[in-house]
Amino acid sequence: MSGATTLARPIAQRPQDPAASRARRSRLLVALLVLAVAAAVGIGVMRGAYREGPFEPSSPTPTGSRAVVEVLQDAGSDVQVRRSTLDAAGALEEGRTVLVTDPSALGSAQLGSLHQAHAAGTGRLVLVRPDFFALRALAPGIAPAGILPDSTELSADGSCGAASLRARMITAGPVDSLAPAATRYRTESGSGVCFDGVVVQGDRITVLGSATLLANETVGERDNAAVALNALGIDRSAPVTWYLPSASDPMAEVRPGLLERLPSWLLPIGLWIVLVSAALLLALSHRLGPVVVEPLPVRVRARELTLGRAALFQRSSARDRAARSLRAATAVRLAGRLGVRREESLDALIAALRGHTDATDAQLRALLGPTPITSDAALMRLASDLTHLEKEIDR
């Protein structure tokens, strides 16, 4: 035992080699760096296999649409991805179903090209959450009718007809980092509307008001997939063109501003309203008379202030307030004449008035104290009595 202890002690106290410790730390850092580079390369290779973005047909991310596209391809549909307006318009003329993933990003020229191709060809349009301007150009009979800010389960009723797209219940609402809410729509005729306006069908056009019907994250909820696939024509293996508006599109070089989206008749009406408003303001200003310039500071006579204050009291029937003002002014003047300090009570003032008037203490208290005033006649009588009291003191 003593030998073992003697041998173990020098081993425990043996100093570590600084060079060996640095070498081990260097090897560990190199290994971590190699792992980080390998992970970055792996992620880059994996991302290179698909494009990441909303409704990207090859993206497996929650906001992509790879699930819907793979089901369409498995069913025999020819799915083509296009990012040019001219290509999408050509697909419409060929009779293909064209899904427009972001109609609100299209300019006037792009919307006009799609409208002409839709009218000239036999293709079908499927629009995802179009705004008012896109609907005015592509589907004038359909208009927005509100939003669904929260996830909601919507059922198909008996009036849906073909607009239900063979679905009984869907889940509509916002999708994380993709759409803050779902949009409801209405038609002028009231027909072709289903799921509380989230799905609307018109003449060779279908409007989907919720991103939940196409996004990987939510397409599997309820009958969302049935609505998406039937809207794109899976039942007849229709060829589908997946149109994603792109900033590199030659027709999208200049993004449309708000003035470009406004109707042409709005400018003359707006100018007419401005002119009418200016004429009305000018007429009202002349009606009030010219502006009077008065030097400052303005001096107002005491009589004018008194009369104005009295008129305010009379207009508001503030008899008690007027009586308090009269009594307070009289008490201040009497106290100054009789040598009574202002901070002293009413009793001190009444005591000072003894011998200067024939009125008793009770009469003086009723006259100078807070006795209610119920009528204009009583107020006039109070003013007269206060004046008479001051005259008695002046004798």
UniProtKB/TrEMBL annotation:
Give the protein's recorded name: DUF4350 domain-containing protein
Q: Which InterPro entries match?
A: DUF4350 (IPR025646)
Sorted keywords for this record are: Membrane, Transmembrane, Transmembrane helix
> Any transmembrane segments, and where?
28-50, 265-284
Which Pfam families does this chain map to?
DUF4350
For the keyword Transmembrane, the answer is yes
- Domain of life, source organism: Bacteria
- Organism of this sequence: Brachybacterium equifaecis
Q: Where is this region: Disordered?
A: 1-20
Q: Where do the DUF4350 domain residues begin and end?
A: 57-231
